[in-house]
Design a protein that fits this description.
The complex is a heterodimer of chains A (171) and B (401).
Chain A: H1 5-20, H2 27-38, H3 43-53, H4 57-66, E1 78-83, H5 86-90, H6 93-104, E2 117-122, E3 134-136, E4 139-141, H7 149-162
Parallel strand pairs in A: 1-2
Antiparallel strand pairs in A: 1-3, 3-4
Helix pairs in contact in A: 1-2, 1-3, 2-3, 3-4
Chain B: E1 7-8, H1 20-26, H2 30-40, H3 52-61, E2 68-73, H4 82-89, H5 91-105, E3 109-114, H6 122-134, E4 139-140, E5 149-156, H7 166-173, E6 197-201, H8 202-214, H9 216-220, E7 230-237, E8 243-248, E9 251-252, H10 253-260, E10 267-270, E11 276-279, E12 286-287, E13 297-301, H11 307-321, H12 327-344, H13 350-366, H14 370-374, H15 377-385, H16 387-390
Parallel strand pairs in B: 1-8, 2-3, 2-6, 3-5, 7-13
Antiparallel strand pairs in B: 4-5, 7-8, 9-12, 10-11, 10-13
Helix pairs in contact in B: 1-5, 1-8, 2-3, 2-5, 5-8, 11-12, 12-13, 13-15
The chains are: A alpha+beta (171), B alpha/beta (401).
């Protein structure tokens, strides 16, 4: 049976509430679950979570807008985060950045039109001894070279093709 | 491509039986654990250097039906990655340290606040927690103490540097924006959900477990009078062997640079973006709370580095990571960054540079929390030591942002 996305989201949130509890301190873990599964936190999701935790939705929005890992806008299935902080900067960050722009055809802060990749800056990934470093979702890549960018992205492109039917839908 | 091998020297943590300290602690009285720690002289390894035993003692003395132990694994300081290595290779020591802390202050719950950027460490940590529960080292009645229970939960950060500050971390745990609190009250009285809470750095907890295992005298024999013990340093930048190195506190910068192959450096940044820039002329200085204090980050700058570009990188970091709560930090960092852009364009007078430095000093005094108070440090120390390098430039620096 076809379940509308909003309905599915609501059911998911209700499931996570039973897991984390309805205390305010569950808010960030809840938002992280939504972000992970739906690639964004929509106004609807914020409203449902607010209702469940008995707080005003603006409280939820305040939190979403504060943390760089929580996003209201649509993000790509794979979020590429290039470390821009000092050690990676010194290790050749600018050339990696340029090659990422070339390979993805987008700038930092943007998402590819097919919804596969978003490109973001990150502040210190803690890989300072092995820079330049980047994250693709939770996976870390170190000592990245302009040449290796293509292969790193190709891996995730392939994964995307296999899982094409599991894409996060509009909601 | 995805090599995670970290260079290290010999680390004391690898010599320690990981649960010896825990077992010893559970055979001792609570007050005796804290007094052993007090005797060791252990001070917080995250950077602030607050005496660990004092923190534990205050939380132990506080009256409450619930207390919490928080492991601060929100290692966001640029140039710091020692906790990444500790969490990956010595997780049992950290968890043993938390369990000892929990027992010593009478807490029943611990929380590991792991930064979102380290999500790939989460699963292995969860596995260690599960194994320790199965071994009877966590949970109800652990180590034969039938009336005592202590368990640990993982919480993930969401990409905010400020959450490494302990009150901002607690705000985040409670489901709020990571905005630091006014103090007092301190977390040892009024912490997570209003209960007494100790927040300790990953490395501090691991050392606490080692001290209980090997005794306070073993720890005290290393380091200096005011900075007891040994410390892990995260070394990055222009050197041959960047990595995680253990040295006794009080090691000179010279000695550390020799070990990592960075003796040609013209300066080092000690303490990350919030730390100080030390020029080569001062490499005889020591890394210790009484001289150059640090959470362990040492970034090496080779002779070819443009110090202004470094100041710019740090200020870009702070304009991004300031939580925006207080004016000196939110606006001050923007003004300093503007000043760096003027310097880059060769359009900054000495008078204006002095105004910028005065602004930096105001930020140190007037900001609400450690982030703002320390954010101008790098700028001020670079200006102080490298004036002739940064003034009177011909044109804008080439590096595009």
């Amino acid at each position: 049976m076809l379940v509308p996305v909003q309905e599915r989201l609501r059911l998911d949130i209700e499931k996570w509430i039973t897991q984390y509890g309805n205390d305010r301190s569950s808010l960030i873990p809840m938002l992280q679950e939504v972000q992970k599964k739906y690639s964004r936190i929509s106004e609807y999701a914020m409203q449902v979570i607010a209702d469940q935790l008995s707080i005003h939705p603006v409280e939820v929005h305040g939190v979403v807008s504060f943390y760089s890992y929580l996003k209201e806008a649509h993000k790509g299935r794979f979020e590429v985060r290039l470390c821009r902080t000092i050690a990676c900067d010194m290790a050749g960050r600018d050339r990696i950045a340029q090659q990422l722009r070339n390979e993805l055809g987008i700038n930092f802060g943007e998402t590819t039109p097919d919804g596969r990749f978003s490109l973001e800056w990150a502040n210190c990934l803690g890989m300072c001894d092995q820079g330049p470093a980047l994250l693709v979702n939770e996976q870390v890549f170190t000592r990245v070279t302009p040449e290796s960018i293509h292969d790193i992205l190709a891996r995730f492109r392939r994964e995307m093709d296999i899982n094409v039917f599991q894409q996060a839908e509009e909601h | 491509m995805n090599t995670m091998k970290t260079n290290t020297n010999h680390l004391s943590f690898s010599d320690i039986d990981k649960d010896a300290g825990l077992k010893k602690a559970f055979s001792m009285g609570r007050a005796d654990i804290i007094s052993e720690l007090n005797h060791s002289g252990l001070r917080g390894r995250g950077g602030a250097g607050f005496p660990t035993s004092v923190k534990w003692n205050l939380a132990a003395a506080a009256k409450s039906d619930q207390k919490f132990v928080v492991c601060n694994a929100d290692e966001g300081e640029p140039g710091t990655f020692k906790d990444r290595l500790i969490l990956a290779e010595f997780p049992d020591l950290v968890i043993a340290g938390m369990t000892i802390a929990g027992y010593a202050i009478g807490a029943s719950k611990g929380i590991i606040y792991l930064r979102g950027e380290y999500s790939y460490l989460r699963q292995s940590l969860e596995e260690v927690l599960a194994r320790r529960r199965a071994q009877g080292l966590l949970g109800k009645g652990l180590l034969g103490k039938e009336n005592y229970a202590f368990d640990i939960e993982m919480r993930m950060g969401a990409g905010a540097y400020i959450c490494g500050e302990e009150t901002a971390l607690i705000e985040s745990l409670e489901g709020h924006r990571g905005e630091s609190r006014n103090r007092p009250p301190f977390p040892v009285d009024t912490g997570f959900r209003g209960h007494p809470t100790i927040v300790n750095n990953v490395e501090t907890l691991a050392w606490a477990a080692c001290i209980l295992a090997k005794g306070a005298d073993w720890f005290k024999a290393m380091g200096t009078d005011k900075s007891a013990g040994s410390k892990l340093f995260s070394v990055s930048g222009d050197c041959e062997r960047p990595g995680v190195y253990e040295f006794p506190m009080g090691v000179t910068i010279d000695r550390l640079l020799e070990a990592v192959g960075g003796t040609h450096a013209k300066a080092v940044q000690v303490g990350g973006a919030s730390g100080h820039c030390i020029p080569a002329a001062e490499f005889k200085r020591t890394l210790a709370f009484e001289d150059v204090p640090t959470g362990g980050s040492v970034i090496v700058f080779g002779p070819q580095r443009d110090m202004l570009a470094i100041a710019k990188n740090f200020l870009e970091f702070f304009t991004e990571e300031s939580c925006g709560q207080c004016t000196p930090c939110r606006e001050g960092n923007e003004k300093l960054l503007e000043g760096v852009r003027l310097l880059e364009a060769g359009k900054c007078s000495m008078t204006y540079l002095k105004d910028l430095c005065a602004l930096g000093e105001t930020m140190q005094l007037a900001s609400k929390c450690g982030l703002g108070q320390s954010s101008p440090n790098a700028f001020l120390s670079i200006v102080n030591h490298f004036k002739s390098e940064i003034l009177g430039r011909k044109a804008a620096a080439p590096a595009g942002r």
